[in-house]
Amino acid sequence: MEKISFSTFQLIHQTETLGARFVVPDKTLFNSLNNKFEHRDNDSFYYGTLECMDNYLWICVEYGRAQPRRNDVVNIETGTPSINQRQSNQTELLNQSFFFYLFNNTTAYLSNSKHQNLYQQILNKLCSTNFVIKRLIINYEDFISSIKELSSISFTAHNDLFGSDGVRVRALTDLTGTSSPATFKLTASYSLKLDDSIKHFLNQLKSEQNECKLSQLVVSGIDENKLETFYNADTFTNKVPIYATRTSEGVFDSDAVLQRIKSELSI
Prior knowledge:
The chain has 267 residues and is α+β, with helices and mostly antiparallel strands. The chain folds into two domains: 2-135 and 240-264, no CATH class; 140-233, no CATH class. The protein is 21% helix and 42% strand. The protein contains five helices and 15 strands. Strands 1, 2, 3, 4, 5, 8, 9, 10, 11, 12, 13, 14 and 15 form a 13-stranded antiparallel sheet that branches. A two-stranded antiparallel sheet has the order 6-7. The longest helix is centred in the last third of the chain and has 15 residues, at 196-210. 18% of the residues are buried.
């Protein structure tokens, strides 16, 4: 079985009513959508299936490109070449992407975090309104409060991080071989329950980031729901892992993936 990691996002759309410019969508916005659709972006063709239920919206997209295409194919058993029968306007939809939205907790789950813009385009086209999919933003203090276990820390340190602190300077020399590197990146992995001393250490790192003594601070941990959670440049992301098996055609069964994400989220 293969791991598919769903990242959490916020889904909002532009409203024409008075008050807030962007609001959380409700189910009525998707009630009349067809359960199949097509989408084109540059040279890629997307074929999608959609399911809107009382408590969730599910979209599976399969995609590919007609080009490039080789004129010949080769029999892997005999090594004999033959003419490629696939036409120049045809493609094999070997790539997949999944989108799951829960109405009750107003959270969107994407199997490919790089497809924010893709699903914005698809939803804009299907619903004739302006959607925005963005990462969940949370302050650092709330992030620290949300995790129960520390998994890893990484940051890029600048030479004034250690200042004149003798203990830190000796540690820096042991790590890097010199007491005054201009910058260096440090990554550490843990499996620690959060206590007051660790929280103090994490808050100290944040203070030093605010003072520009370090940058690119990334902290990961496990929250009370056993979800992997990241703090990265003021961005808060949960990853929900599931496991699925590919079919004989080399793709995942959409219904099986849906059932697994529902099970993982206790839907």
